[in-house]
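ingest -> validate -> predict -> emit
validate: passed (alphabet ok, no gaps, 542 aa)
predict: started
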Amino acid sequence: MITNLHIKNIGIIDDLEVDFNNGMNVLTGETGAGKSLIIDSLGIICGGRFSKEMIRKGENHSYVELCIYVPNDINSIDGNIIITREIYANGKNMCKINGRLVTVAELKNFMSNYIEIHGQNDNQQLLDSKTHIKYLDNFSGDEILELKKDYKEKFVKYNEIKRELRENYGDEKEKQRKLDLLKYQLNEIKEAKLKPREEQELEEKRKFFMNSEKIVKNLAEADMAIGENTIDVIGAAIRALEKIEDIDEKYKKSSDNLKNVYYEIQEISRDISYFSEELDFDEQEREEIETRLDIIYNLKRKYGNNIEEILRYADEVEKEIEKIENVEQYNNQLRKELQEIERYMTEIAEKLSEIRKTNAQILSEKINQELIDLEMKNAKINVKVEYKINEFYEDGKDQVEIFIKTNVGENENELTKIASGGEMSRLMLAIKKVLAEADKMPILIFDEIDTGISGKAAKSVAGKLKSISKNHQILCISHLAAIAASADYNYFISKNIINERTSTNVKLLNEKEALCEIARISSGEVNDVTLQYARELRNKIA
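emit:
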């Protein structure tokens, strides 16, 4: 059960902390005091969506903390589970379970084991026949889970193959158009006869041609600077030193060093002469290089950032051409695989349908029994399961829809065409009651389950909620005196203005205060007559 709820900075809620108890907890109070914000906060801590507009004005984050006590629960520490969720205006979202960081998806999945919230929009969901199979499957329980898991795995593969078949050039004109394009691309790449590193080599040659004038000029200057005169001058110096090298070792050393320089300069001079002689700036070769690079640049623009990528793309195109030219053979393989999957899915779907049909009858009977208790004695619910031979859906081959007959002598019809607002509220309560018994959900939260009902029906709804609370903790926001009177614990929600800011406040009422609140709800006034009615109502429902 929920033992404590702590909310900060959500809407008009400043800093609110509420202790809840086992059994039936009913929250009543003024319109606009923040009742729905409390339910919204419970939705947030259960992994629901959060809009930054919900953050209290002037604050940069919101915070919700929930303490749940579940005895002997494998996910808790000594039965206590502390869940927190902190959301910032910049979008940062921090969720924790017993101090361990989790994602919002993990939080949502975890909390789905403990809390179910019936909001004001759930009645509208009941009008959507697509949700009816969910109610039936939840009622069917573990018996159906493994089969559905197995079926959904095959359903994903089934859709993948069907999509691939659709995309495998089923249209002959589209197939030929694609084939022509790919063959053109492959031929264009092959005709270019690209080689690895070819572009780098051509770029180096191109650079050489672009600098031809500069090369010729500077080689000539270097050759002239060294020239015969330089070598002759060094040679004369060597001959002079040779004449005195036997007088002192240092002269001989200088002579030897100068000889080395002489030989190196001779070698350099020959190299420069050779460079000049081998220069051949063929204009035709230059044009061929430019043309070749243009071809490579054009292919790069179309098929890849470099020659290696272009060649890889050509390999892929070749494989794609082969695939298209042999597409019928490939598609036949896919069709064969699809038939096998369809056969297997059909076997599972038939088992699912048998389970659903059996449980649909039981679910109908249980809901109808609950409706009798909710003052809908003449109403009959019929959960129908229709097996579609030629269709595969996400949950099998069944279409499930709830039909209802509201009065004796009338024909049954789709729920969406008959039920009124008050009937929808009671029907949803009946379904929740039956499902709660099936899935053992420990905590049920109802946000204005009393919409559209009053009088005797309201007392019946109150009695049903009281009955559910014997095995589940109930949190219920209500405007009906009968439901408030059935509470084990009554909470009054009000709003106060402190320092020119509106804030929500929640107070657990004692018995005298609870009677006054029931009296206020019943007639809008608190006097001896309404208080006596409140006592009688409380005693009768209790």
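The chain is about 55% helix and 20% strand.
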